[in-house]
Amino acid sequence: MFTLNDVVPWGRSLDEYRSMFTLTDSDMTGRILGCADGPASFNAEATALGWSVVSCDPLYRFGVAEIRDRIDITFQSFIDQTKKNAAEFVWSNDLPDVEALGHRRMAAMAQFLRDFDVGRASGRYVDAELPKLPFADDSFDVAVCAHFLFLYSEQFPQRFHVDSILELCRVGREVRVFPLLELGSVPSRHVSSVVDHLRTLGFNVQIEQVEYEFQHGGNQMLRVLR
Ligand SMILES: C[S@@+](CC[C@H](N)C(=O)[O-])C[C@H]1O[C@@H](n2cnc3c(N)ncnc32)[C@H](O)[C@@H]1O
Q1: How many CB atoms lie within 10 A of CB 160?
Q2: 12 in ligand 1 pocket by Cβ < 6 Å?
Q3: Contact yes or no for 129/58 (Cβ under 8 A)
Q4: Is the pLDDT of residue 78 over 90?
Q5: Number of structural domains the chain divides into
Q6: For a pocket test of ligand 1, which of 57, 70, 113 has the largest count of ligand atoms closer than 8 A to its C-beta?
Q7: Pairing outcome for strands 181-182 and 172-178
Q8: Parent domain of 134
Q9: Which ligand 1 atom is at minimum distance from the Cα of 37?
Q10: What is the distance in A from the centroid of ligand 1 to the CA of 10?
Q11: Which residues have CB under 8 Å from 206's CB, separation 6+?
């Protein structure tokens, strides 16, 4: 059973989603699913710009106060962990250190929390978990999944990854997954067998380089088309 203890409450912004997934102006006109969006501000920011975005995540079965508490409880340990493993990440003028990272993530999560009740009531935040989603076939033009599939390769087996991507392909005409690394910034052990499996089933699968790179070597996304 999914509990709050399972959640890594670490949310990214619309700008980060745009560069992780090479989201274009034309993507913006379509229906987008953000799967495993967690406390990202992607949906809140995109909706404010007029995009059509639905996010799904088992986190959304909890209320604002519970999610905020979980963020507050775990925040310092994430900062400490990131400091300990700072060499795994790409620091830049834009994001010079762990403190700046903490501010950026907290700002994104605060924006998510402010939007959550209204967004959940209007169906933009849906409690759902892979590998089964409560959406009709072809509900979305693009389904994106950031920092869940492949990242937790040790915790979830290859079969889970295949079933999850097939499910995303059922509900979305195109699927994009980022990054292709697992925790520890090493290439995911499942990528090549998942790609082979999907190709055997007749899917068009591409690995593409993207602008975003925060984990060293984490600058590739998987694009799957039916
Ligand atoms: C590290 S967060 C990523 C948040 C966001 N996508 C981002 O990149 O900022 C991983 C998310 O995966 C969600 N998650 C865990 N199990 C899941 C499942 N079976 N299906 C979908 N999402 C799941 C967690 O609740 C959490 O919000």
Answers
A1: 17
A2: yes
A3: yes
A4: no
A5: 1
A6: 57
A7: unpaired
A8: 4-225
A9: 6
A10: 9
A11: 222, 223
Owner of token pair 């079969």: 159
For residue range 14-68, list pLDDT tens digits in order. 999 999 999 998 998 999 999 999 999 999 999 999 999 999 999 999 999 999 9
- Give the residue among 122, 189, 172 at the shortest CA–CA distance from 21: 172
Distance 106 CA to ligand 1 centre (A): 16
| Of the candidates 41, 55, 38, 34, the residue with the CA atom closest to the CA atom of residue 175 | 34
Name the residue at shortest CA distance from atom 26 of ligand 1.
Answer: 38
Question: What is the domain-level CATH number for residue 184?
Answer: 3.40.50.150
CA distances from 170 to 5, 80, 142, 206, 226 (A): 30, 39, 11, 18, 9
Task: Tell me how far apart the alpha carbons of residues 139 and 141 are, in angstroms, rounded to a whole number.
Answer: 7
Q: Does the C-beta of 109 come closer than 6 Å to ligand 1?
A: no
DSSP one-letter code for 160: H
pLDDT, tens digit, 9 for 90 and up, residues 143-196: 999 999 999 999 999 999 999 999 999 999 999 999 999 988 899 999 999 999
